[in-house]
Structures are given as C-alpha cells and as structure tokens.
Fold this sequence. Notes:
Number of helices: 14
Strand order of the largest sheet: 1-2
Number of strands: 2
Shape: globular
Distance between the termini: 31 Å
Largest sheet: 2 strands, antiparallel
Amino acid sequence: xxxxxxxxxxxxxxxxxxxxxxxxxxxxxxxxxxxxxxxxxxxxxxxxxxxxxxxxxxxxxxxxxxxxxxxxxxxxxxxxxxxxxxxxxxxxxxxxxxxxxxxxxxxxxxxxxxxxxxxxxxxxxxxxxxxxxxxxxxxxxxxxxxxxxxxxxxxxxxxxxxxxxxxxxxxxxxxxxxxxxxxxxxxxxxxxxxxxxxxxxxxxxxxxxxxxxxxxxxxxxxxxxxxxxxxxxxxxxxxxxxxxxxxxxxxxxxxxxxxxxxxxxxxxxxxxxxxxxxxxxxxxxxxxxxxxxxxxxxxxxxxxxxxxxxxxxxxxxxxxxx
Length: 322
C-alpha cells in the first residue's frame, strides 16, 4: 500500500512537472483532458454498476454555467469558489434527478439521462435573457485567493488546479471502489436480485453513486469553463455526452487511471485529426474506435496491462536465468 501511495505521489509530481515544461497549447489540451476525464471517470463508475449514461453533459453544463453565472451576476472570479460552485451544481442536479434514475436500468437508464441532458440544453438555448442563448456566457480569467496571475502564468495555474482536483477525485474513487459500497455497486451489475436478498438497498447504493458522478461532472465542467473562458449550450448536447462514452470505451474501465488516459489520448488525437484531416476527422476517430474494439476490447488500458504482464514475465525469466 505504501509503495502504491509513493508511486501515486511520483505520478502527480511527474504530471505537474511535465505540464509546466510543455508548450502552452499542449498544457491547455492536457488541462481540458483532465477536466473532461472526470466526466469520463463518472461514466466508467456507472459502468461498474452495469449502467451507461448518455447524459453526462447534464452535469458538465451545470458546473460550467455555475461558474459563468457566479462571475457575471455575483462577481465571483476566485477559482476555488468556482470549483466549489461547479461541484455543488452538479451535486444538486444529481440530487434532484437521482431518485428517478436509480429506479431504471439498461436502455431506460441511458435514455432517461439523455432526456434530462436535452431538457437542460433546451432551457439554455431558449432562456436567452438569463443564459445568453446559443451565444453562451463569457467567463473572465479567474483569480487565486484574490491574486490575479499574469496572463503568461494563468494557464499553468489552471493546470495545477485541475491536476490537484483530479488527483483528489481519483483517490476518492479508488477508495470508493474498495469500500463496501463499491463492492455492492459491482454486485448489482452481476446480480441485483441477490444483492436485495442480502438485505442491501440497491436504490440507495445507486443514488449515492449518481451523487458522486454528478459532483464529479460538475467539477469537471467548472474546471473546463475556467480554462476555455466561455460556456454555451452545446456542453449539454447529446453529442457531448456521447463523446464521454466514446472516451470511456477508448480508455477502458479496468482501472481508475484508464478513463484519464483515454481522455488525454482522445484530446491530442482529435487535435491532430483536425489539423491533418479537417473534413474527415470523425471518420478517423471512428477507425481508431474500430481498431480498439477489434484488437483491445478492454480499451487502451488493457494494452498497458498486457505489456506490463509480459515485461514482468521477461524480468522473472531473466532473474531465473532462463
């Protein structure tokens, strides 16, 4: 356990150092990838319970617009408060929709999450006087504990904030999956009826999971909004939610780091696809997805695990002199 914690600290320090050394555009992509990775991690968490959400844009937009409203109407620009408001907005939406979501499974759960997301999209588009309609809201550069960073250091500050929030959430999800509640959620996926026979509340376990996913989604939306400096209704559109499912399948769901790795690969892959095949980049991503499904159904993380096992086997053979 101590070795694992030490490795986690080294990984965080390495990510922090790498982000500060990278050029500005790469650091921006990495910041977005980590922020959106929190949404993807939520999708993967629901998949542990056998559920697929096509409405993660609901929490994403709620967190992002919370930051926009706070800056425009209340003059709140502090990044820490923005993060708290974003997570709180996602948690609030999850608390309202969770009781209904926890009652459905399979395609009904997926369609219900999609419906909630599209309802929010419609409100954001139509309520022009409040939300800015399709134009969205501009978000001014955030401050840190009352300090305004110079423009050349703002990207680094937001990156470190996003990395810190992501590390905390990954640790919480890691602990959650190894808690009795985490085992209960996975047992629900395998046999919900037997879980009920054991005297455990399936609805309660799923509701808590939805709350966690909602808070994490709102947090990701707030971090993304502060980095981009703009929010619009497309954050709640179904294609955005579908993208999170795509990335979850790309990265895999076998480890808490898999969704984040998939998100980072996807952001850079999409950027280069825009650059080199601007009119057919969607087809390029589709081909990549076909390759992943065909050769690594468990996602990119399964390739990493395969390589790690083979390297471990080679090391063991070398030590035995075989």
